[in-house]
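Weekly modeling sync, notes
Attendees: S.R. (lead), two postdocs, one rotation student

Agenda item 3: backlog of single-chain predictions. S.R. asked that every request posted to the team notebook include the full sequence so nobody has to chase files. The rotation student volunteered to paste the first one in as an example of the format we agreed on. Action items at the bottom.

Example entry:
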Amino acid sequence: MRGATHAKWVACAAAAALATTACGGGGDGSGADGGAVLSSSWGDPQNPLEPANTNEVQGGKVLDMIFRGLKRYDPETGEARDMLAEKIETTDSRTFTITVKDGWTFSNGEKVTAKSFVDAWNYGASLKNNQRNAYFFAYIEGYDKVHPEQGRQSADTLSGLKVTGERTFTVRLTQKFSTFPDTLGYNAYVPLPRAFFDDHDAWLAKPVGNGPYTVRSYTRGSQMSLRAREDYPGPDKARNGGVDLKVYTDNNTAYTDLMAGNLDLVDDVPAAQLRNVRGDLGDRYLNTPAGILQTLAFPYYDRAWGKDGMDKVRRGLSMAIDREQITETIFQKTRTPATDWTSPVLGADGGYRAGLCGDACAYKPEEARRLIQEGGGLPGGQVKITYNADTGSHKEWVDAVCNSINNALGNDRACVGNPVGTFADFRKQITDRKMSGPFRAGWQMDYPLIQNFLQPLYYTNASSNDGKWSSAEFDRRVDEANAETDTAKAVEKFQRAEEVVRDEMAAIPLWYQNGSAGYSERLSNVKLNPFSVPVYDQITVG
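Predicted structure, as returned to the notebook:
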């Protein structure tokens, strides 16, 4: 299922391709409503943009522009606010009645109804559709029938979803889940038009959503052009004419283009430029806290890493990494050494627990050597940290991590970097379970809940559990936390689940990452949301 293929994106027509590569800050001048178009750096997404099959950052950026869901996360605070939801009601935190606001349409003119959501969720959950985010529907009754762990599915639709009117539907969960409504701003839960089902290949070639932008064209490896939607009914109508997302395989090249006036926005300033960026851009450089955690993940499907005693090796590797030095010298303090598996943006009330990792996240070379030896040593005598090399942002810190490990262990070949050419190829190798050692695993929160930093990454068979780590005790504690109706008590129970991740060092936390961006003099009102993504619809050009 994880390695399933999908219909290929078709290239845009030659005339459109020529139009989208014209000059003017990288854009083609103006959108459908006459507003100026901006250009921004980007990378090809791993898969075509089916909402329930997109769980990586680049594809998520586009979905966030062309779709709106029941909830939307406030670009300033991250708070889940109603968007298409008129109201979400429950008396028991298990059965929810959802009313969809009237007046919303897709960009092809279709009306957004309750059925638009129910059909989309049923598609996302179905085993036969091979959706990466199917797991997000696992708490809805009937998931075990439409997406069994083994064998064929015995139902096509979730029994817990019922359309009760043109704008109303009910959701019945398998257990109490008090924060369920707050998860509904995630892109897996957006509605889909009938066009998605009636001509799926055509939709994949040119996605149709209900957000403030529409896709004009896409040429893989080159550019995606989005234009502001004139008839968009939402309160967050685009303040520009559109966005040209330009594909870069090296963020240093993107930064050079920004400085040369050939690009308007770089939303991930490469590490090599951090020493110069304030001088280059002044107040046009953004460095803001974000819900991003960088870790090293491990392939537990590889017997060498899944055997007994390897928790000591992982803990030893963690203690061989000098996070303080790396974040200061490589990242110029745009990263903060991680001491837990969440993010400071959650705050203490939201579940962030500074210092949870304890000594295991401190640089202790002697202890590192002892633990690795007690655990049986490094598999094959060496660790290779796999990362995607296309952004230009990872080689420097991977080399620094390896240098730190090598120095701590007294062996200059104990750790080496293992670059993969592109992000898409890197993700494909992970999806196909081709990792043979630790690999870069950056997590950008989907919604600002402690649950989102834990369950998608570490719950058995979860959608982003790329290393296939599994712990029955962790799963049990997560289930208990989800069933808790008191928010403060739920947070405490999630923290107890996080302790299992700590005790087994399921992944090595490296650092919390700020969002960074640089932009041209043409742009104003540029901000990053708590997910470190530009709030494209609020940017003005001129």
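Discussion: group reviewed the output briefly. The mean pLDDT is 91.
Action items: rotation student to repeat for the remaining queue; S.R. to check formatting next week.
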